[in-house]
Amino acid sequence: MRRAERVMIMTKFTKILMMTSAMAMAGAAHAQDGEPIKIGVLHSLSGTMAISETTLKDTVLMMVEQQNAKGGVLGRPLEAVVVDPASDWPLFAEKARELLTVSEVDAIFGCWTSVSRKSVLPVIEELNGLLFYPVQYEGEESSKNVIYTGAAPNQQAIPAVDYMAEELGVEKWALLGTDYVYPRTTNNILESYLKENGLAEDEIFVNYTPFGHSDWSKIVADVVALGADGKKVGVVSTINGDANVGFYKELAAAGVSADDIPVMAFSVGEEELSGLDTANLVGHLAAWNYFQTAESDENTAFIEEWQKFTDESRVTNDPMEATMIGFNAWVAAVEKAGTTDVDPVLDAIVGVEVPNLTGGTAQVLPNHHLTKPVLIGEIREDGQFDIVSQTEPVPGDAWTDFLPESAVLDADWPGKDCGMYNTETESCVQVQSNY
Amino acid sequence: MTHATRPLIAALVAFLLLIPALPAHANDALRAVVAQNMDQIEKPSRRTVGPLIDQIAATGAEGVALLGAWADRRLGLSTDGRVLIVDGDIVTDAVTGAPVPGADPKMLRPNSGVRGVIESALVASQISDPDPAIRSAALESIARSGTADHLAALTAAAADPDPTLQARRDRLRTLLTIQHDDDSATRIAAIESLGGDVGLDFRAVLNPLLSTRQIAATAPPEGANIARELSPGDDALSRNAAYDLLKAQGIAQPRLTADAQRDALAAHIADGAVGGIPVADLSDPAARDRAYKALEATGQVTPAATEAEAQAAIDAHRFYEVYAEPDSAVTDAATAAQRSAQTRLLAMRGVDLGLDALSLASIYFLAAIGLAITFGVMGVINMAHGEFIMMGAYTGYVVQGLISDRTLSLIVALPAAFAVTFIAGVALYRLVIRHLAKRPLETLLATFGVSIALQQLAKNIFGTQARPLTAPGWLEGAITVNDVISISTIRVAIFVLAVLFLGLFLFIMKRTRLGLEVRAVTQNPGMAASMGINPDRIAMMTFGLGSGIAGIAGVAIGLFAQVTSELGQQYIVQSFMTVVVGGVGNIWGTLAGAGLIGVLSKVIESFNPSNTLAAQTFMILFIVIFIQFRPRGIIPQRGRAAEA
Amino acid sequence: MTRKPLILRNPSILIVLAVLAGFTLTVTLLSQAYGSGVIPTSMIKVLGKTLCLALAAVAMDLVWGYLGILSLGQMAFFALGGYMIGQWLMYARTEAIVAASMAQNPIPPTPAELQTGVANQIFGVVGSSDLPLVWSFAHSLPIQLALVVLVPGVLALVFGWLAFRSRVNGVYLSILTQAMTLALALWLFQNDSGFRGNNGLSGLQNIPGLEGVGQARLSVWFLWASALALGVAYLLAAWVISGKFGSVVRAIRDDETRVRFLGYPVEGFKLAVFTLAAMMTAIAGALYYPQAGIINPAELAPIASIYLAVWVAIGGRGRLYGAIIGAVVVSLLSSWFTGGRAPAIELPFYSVNWVDWWQVLLGVAFVLVTLFAPRGIAGIVDWLGGVMPPRRHGRDLGPDQGALQEQEAKA
Lengths: 435, 644, 411
Hints:
The structure holds 3 protein chains of 3 kinds.
Chain A: H1 2-27, E1 37-42, H2 50-69, E2 78-83, H3 89-101, E3 107-110, H4 114-127, E4 131-133, E5 146-148, H5 157-167, E6 172-178, H6 181-196, E7 204-209, H7 217-225, E8 233-238, H8 243-253, E9 263-265, H9 270-273, E10 285-288, H10 297-309, H11 318-337, H12 342-349, E11 353-355, E12 361-363, E13 371-372, E14 375-379, E15 385-390, E16 394-395, H13 404-407, E17 409-412, H14 413-416, E18 418-422, E19 427-428
Parallel strand pairs in A: 1-2, 1-3, 3-4, 4-5, 6-7, 6-8, 8-9, 9-10
Antiparallel strand pairs in A: 10-14, 11-12, 13-16, 14-15, 17-18, 18-19
Chain B: H1 5-18, H2 28-36, H3 38-42, H4 50-58, H5 61-71, E1 75-77, E2 83-87, E3 90-93, E4 106-107, H6 112-126, H7 132-144, H8 148-156, H9 163-180, H10 184-193, H11 200-209, E5 212-217, E6 226-230, H12 239-248, H13 258-267, E7 273-274, E8 277-278, H14 285-297, H15 307-316, E9 318-323, H16 328-377, H17 385-402, H18 406-431, H19 440-462, E10 478-480, E11 486-488, H20 489-511, H21 513-523, H22 525-530, H23 535-560, H24 567-582, H25 587-607, H26 612-629
Antiparallel strand pairs in B: 1-2, 1-4, 2-3, 5-9, 6-9, 7-8, 10-11
Helix pairs in contact in B: 1-2, 4-5, 4-6, 5-6, 6-7, 7-9, 8-9, 9-10, 9-11, 10-16, 11-16, 12-15, 13-14, 16-20, 16-23, 16-24, 16-25, 17-18, 17-19, 17-23, 17-24, 18-23, 20-21, 20-23, 21-23, 24-25, 24-26, 25-26
Chain C: H1 6-9, H2 11-30, H3 41-66, H4 74-102, H5 111-123, H6 141-165, H7 170-189, E1 201-202, H8 215-241, H9 243-254, H10 256-261, H11 266-292, E2 294-295, H12 302-315, H13 320-338, E3 345-346, E4 351-352, H14 354-372, H15 378-385, H16 406-410
């Protein structure tokens, strides 16, 4: 045991060494002249979200290093200001204010959970900052000061459900989620979408569990019992983080194979699977806009850079791709605008098109979302995904069409200067976001 | 491969077809089918792939081999557009059967829906396969998506030499008969032969037969299989639902909604007023009604259905529930079969819930038993107890990393976890708790400090992500009585472990010298000391024992849940509750506490299956209130010790 | 006999108030809105929040240091206060937005439509459009302000009455208070409870009606309010623990049974102090969250209340200024260490990254303080002031197991 621990400490130690050196490199001005351009990195480095968010911090640092090697932006070097909001939501607002007023950064890359984004929103809007938000989320928002580089529901949830109905023949749905806003809103949208497609109330089973839930036997039994009326059951899982471990273990113990009851997960990626023995999960599904197994030259190069920057064993995932796209879009917009000031950059960024890692391009839309292809992956034994379906790029929709209140809403920043535009009354409901 | 190149490749394949120098046994029909359907083979869809599969299967043995490889994801496309079967290192051309050395095919990845369709097509030939595993898989495939063709194939197939497989096949045939047979008498016989059965597959066949829809009509519909007549206003059909039904069938006009009214008014604003009422006043609902009335009177808007009209429409119609299945004899038989299974089903659901509750209770008991020793018997409060559970789980993870055989690693992990947490417990006692004797609140706080530090240490060493701790093969799976009652093996093992520890605890306390001394020290340390017992040593040993058991509990919990640095935190409050609710100082109390909490959580959860969080909230709330009324727990400590 | 006024009997009160006033004045003069701008607005907010935490710590000290109840559920009251004020902040701000938006419609909205619009804005994000019953008074500032003290007060009263009546004491009571805050947190986590679940209430830093003021000035105003609340609460707490009432309270801490035999209504005293402390904590929360900007159920997780106890213990319990010192020092240190600004210690074989190791240090420091310095930082003040424990020749200072022992009194 002691040996294993030491090995563990060693890898941790080398990682920290590499990280500090990376920070030093990011901070150092290379050959370029001029004042460095500062960008903020607002990801938790401690607390419960650290495991997911630290990866994104490293991604930004890697992108900064690459950009500086290419000669920086506008002939000036980039400098990353890293702060740690410690998975504490009020701290996100505090640190964002600090970044914007004390460090005076020109753009912020950050946040993971919806609640952290909602915490930062008022500050960003008050101080007219610019945030790149890299995670798939529940939609129903479009802020002037945020570029949403992750998937909106129509870029992940709806196509995934279509896939299950079309390709797997699912007729009865279990929507299982952790009790917080992303699963709640996503499941609401899905429920209303499924009902629009003619499903009855009792053909949809919804369940919410707390974070880190571990006692899954009854819920799995409930899901299995749904098959009692002879319809094929499918599970749409928005279960978050660690709770997935217990869920999949119980599923395997109950002998439920992917052929009987397929599980489509929206929050399980390459990172999460590393905490599991995937032998029993083969064939279950996940929907993202990127998988490490995507076949493209950009992806091969990205993975190589990443493993060189961190270490050989590190996987890549969807939010990393979103971070990369956001960074490149910002660089392109700054070059186009010729300045780092937020308003000209925001004007310039709409319409910018940068390559993604799945062999296509991502375009920044007037509603501050991106076009993204939807990928469905089946879990393999080695913890990676077999991509079984890939669509053409889908434009992100800030306000879903499947909830009556938001169907009439539209976001169009350059055109109408409004993120919540009511197309029925033809008026702007509010310029600031609802937090 | 892009869309643009695909026709090109198809042309190329067609061109290759014309080259005469090909092996003699090439299957020309298969070649033609493959060439025509390259798109479909490359990107198949479950909905449309059926006919293609039938065509390929019809081309003979090579076609079947291709399908088999396709379903197993062993099919690839060569760069020149040939379809290749990959079998380990050997790559052969699917059409010609000729080996293709040095090929680097792009593997095809049909999704599981398509694979299901392929398997279903191959099933007929597999029912009589010599390999029992393939026969079993074939039956499983039919059970998933049986068709009338399968029924015929099952009926025609020769008897299976394996009696279990034959029994499964018979059952499948009965089920398919109910679904697909033409003769209603045969179907009824099939239904009756399974009467009272609670199997999920049987219920899955019965329920679609009994599915109904509601219709409104003025007279009983001709030729429909009517389940029952509904009267509007009762539970099955509220008056509003009845009116919605009328609206849906286009019989009645929709009622006026507030939104529709507002829009109608907005459309008729004239000179700052609607129907003579100034716009500014229209923030009052009553004013809006008056304005709408005024518009109705002038005929500017269509009159909406009034409440009285709606009631009249409902009263003028009769409402029926109609079976989708036209044959009433079949539905009667199905209803009878369903009814006879109902009571058993209910009882079995109860048993299953009981098993879940028992399992949860044993998990709580296992997590709390160490605490029952340190807190219950010794009265030392240890908030780092949860972190000892976590340490045990991580020990299991580390051992599994060193020993790859899972059974062996589990056998090593259990004592290792005990040893690690025993040492940690003794160290904690010597360094901290001993110096805070008789000051429980300080002990509580100091051990909290230890808990915070240990948790962060675990994060620093192992990271925040969950670590895998996997049960050996013989603990995987579930013990299944039938489709309703089933419990995973690992939970049974935890139950057994809990019972073992209960026995061990009782043995140590009642039958060993240590137990005697522990009891002496807890009753009167001064007197015990004068009898030659070293109270300090005894307390240390007992504390170590309690901590060690927590470590073993950690391994057990890690096997069925996730191993994270917060593992202990999830159980610590519940564990204390268990001990306190049960009654301090008595192992039976802890058992009763765990039982109460386990049963209660599951019962509350079954009331509202869609919200697990609510169940937990109400459970804790119940405990808080319970303790207010029975502060000494279910089994209170009696005598002088109780006053301490 | 005429007694000397409270302040003269306790010179520490004057010192604390003077320090507080000086601190507030200095910060104001260095702020961006009213002075040189040396201290940025984000730092003003941190200082204002720290004052609120100090207020909560004073209340905690009242309950723990003087009454002897180690309440591990104080943050429940803190967060409840925040939720109550947050309801109004959110409702009023949203109502203004919705009303402005609806004013563009051709027909003025009915009150019902306005309310639906507000509910849609607030709850649309969590998939609902009805205003829950608990939001019935959210439109009214006076009612919500009253609820800030009433809701936590009633909760403390009912919980305390039940617990004290059945003589739940010591460790049991601590665990029970912890269970209370856990149950409340779990309940708030549910979307069905009507407080927006995990998202909580956000955008609280934008005060309706004061949109034009700007955060720079608002943050200073809140600093003043927090300082004022802390000063008043300190006076109140000092008054409560002085005199006969205070003597009884401390006597209950040292030996509850004996006080009961002397004929004092022990439960009544406990209930009064417990409820008062809950209300003080709630006020602290109501001032804290408009500065933090967001409140969600994670704020009342059991660990938060434990940290409160840790601050008081490190600062020195049983001394009101000790609680303030502890809260200020530890919470500011915490945010400095976890902020990623603290320089890493480079050892030859390992680099101590404070983001990772601060918690370990805090935990260990806490154990050490409990073991070796039960009086915490305030012990230094005693030492300087030459306050020596009475000589009891080895006898305990109180007969109860939990009472101060001579060994500690010397420490």
